[in-house]
Amino acid sequence: MFEVKGCSYLRKFERKWGILLALPGILGYFLWVLGPTIAAIFMSFTNWSLAGSPQWIGFENYAKLFDDFIFKKSIFVTFYYAIGSVVAGLVLSFFWALLLNSKIPARSILRTIFFIPSITPAVAVAMVWLTLYHPQFGLLNHLFKSIGLPALKWIYDEKQVIPAFIVMSTWTIGYTITIFLAGLQGIPKYLYEAAMLDGATWWHRLRHITIPMMTPAIFFNLLMGIIGALQGGFTQAYIMTSGGPNYASMFYTYYIFLNGFQYGKMGYACALSVIMFLIIMCLTVLIFRTSRYWVYYEALRR
Amino acid sequence: MRLRIFLLVLTVLFSVFVTAKTVELTFAFWGDQLEAKAVTEACEKFNKAHPNIKVIPMHIPQYLEKISAMIASGNPPHLAYLVESRALDWASKGVLVDLEELLQKDPDPVIKNKLPQLYWYYDGGKKLAGVSFAAEFMITYYNKDLFDKARVPYPPTKPEEWTWDKFVETAKKLTFDSKGRTPDDPNFDPKNIVQYGAAIGGGGTSPWVLYPLLWSNGGGIVDEMGSEARIDSPETIEALQKIYDLIYKDHSAIAPAAADAFPSLNVALQTGQVAMVLDGQWAMQEAAQMAKEEGMRFGVAPLPYFKTPITGVEGAPIGIFKDAVKDDPEILQAAWEFYKFIQNPEQVVDVIRSGLWQPTTLDWYMEEEYINKWLNPEVHPAEYKAAVIDYYPYAKPYPNSYLKNVAEINTIITQEMSRIFYGQEDIAKVCKETAEKIKSLLAGRYDR
Question: What pTM, to 2 d.p., does this model score?
């Protein structure tokens, strides 16, 4: 593979420096990502409690999952949230990207404004939404009442809490919008011009040019969105609801945290995270496999 | 020349010896700014009085996560506040020094004379993990102006007199709709209530206020031995029904969903939306601040009760970590010296005078001389002595200080109780299912 002998001095020099300069990243990956991942897989077969030394218990933690009703509930809650927030996030950010890509006044200011929530600390975002969702004095219920709609209980109701969090998640879609915007700007103008000559309407252009040309961006955002959303919800549960009411916001990450730190069952928490790791891996593979049927890559077209 | 070298070596050895004589101790704790300042100052005071010991205070945010990591790495602080729901599990895993042994050698009067509820025993009651550094009772707070305006007499200070029925009756008289009607009025409009008679801290779901109320009716979440569920007992269900009725039938207590959304229940009290609040001692500091800044006149009373007057007392313990002491008798002795010092209410009297904590030693509840040291007329209302200080024999410790798997059980109870107090589901059904769900977690007590 690598023919070192025949290499010029420059090649050797470059390789040495290349590896050296990439070393912080590589080391970081091994130390902070790969290392802990392997450790977590290992610990998931023990009864480690953080205090005292761990004992090997085989698949006991995994067997326990089947009897754990909170685990099942949290899987449901997390998927409900993930599907809702990814779909809502994609549709909304696509819409905003289209709007921000067209010639509207104050475009760059608007683009900045849409991005700001994404760089706001999650805790601050949670605090703001806590006041918005106040059943009695919150802004949202105030608006609802003023247009004659019934006031909601929002995060304090079993059925409303996840929809409320999905709404909240659509507030921080700055990154998704940015990627869509970049994708939109990469669509060649001549396609639209040709379509216009053929008399294509606004809808035809969106349906037959914009969306097909955007599929790589949609694919990327879908994948990142699902990975992110399945690991999401921690701040919301930790700060706003403590997983309630009636486990309705018992996000998977929050349940891992509860087991690992509050209950002192780090081994079990590791087993939980291994399961989520497997779920996300399977989903990623699945999305990649299906991508060839719906994602359009110009370079790959034969 | 030889002599010189000899002397040099001697000085070097001597200085090494002297520096080695100073024992360095780390002490980890949590708390708000005032608490952190008071504890840090106490450490400095200790260091001045003990030139051979140096305590390094470590104020840690996100306490549980960080202290857990420190314990896991085998590098814990020498002394630390112990998170209530984890303390005895840590102890039973052999992470902590058994204080009972130290106490037997040195029966320190301060540590020996704490409120009996504040000792954290494990290993069948043979070993002591720690002693609480603060105490906090559950009590009733009320806004005196709202009582005066409605011409309702203040709640009594004697625990026996403050029955649940009387509490309900008082709450009804202090609940008004937008037309000024009370719930006893046939035209009362429960959709437009402007002032509620009461608020239950934690919305009836969190252990602090809920458990003492259940205990007072002969109920609870588990039996005395911690091996059988009591959450589905008739006594528990009856108590839950009465609390529920106060909220949803009499409309005299604010619904938890609405109460949750206040920054604190003190705000509800101060803005006149709620006349009485059942909450812990920890709310006193803020209430006192509101009294000072906004002119709120607040009063205190015991917790109302169903059959026997009872309240809960909460307070995290301080422990000494084995991995930090490393079997060194000198370090252990130094840690014990500091332990005795920091456990003395005298050293943290500022936090006590601020209203955040109550003291932990019996003298400070019984003797006039000590009570005067911490009663602060700017913070504690006039009836505080009668209502709270004399209340101590009624205080019962929480399951945190004895029950195994307590954190998981508490999570389940809180979530299940939200089905009743938020979701308005059938109480008996929820209780039965809850009992089923906690069954596998009931593994007895650490101290029995």
Answer: 0.90
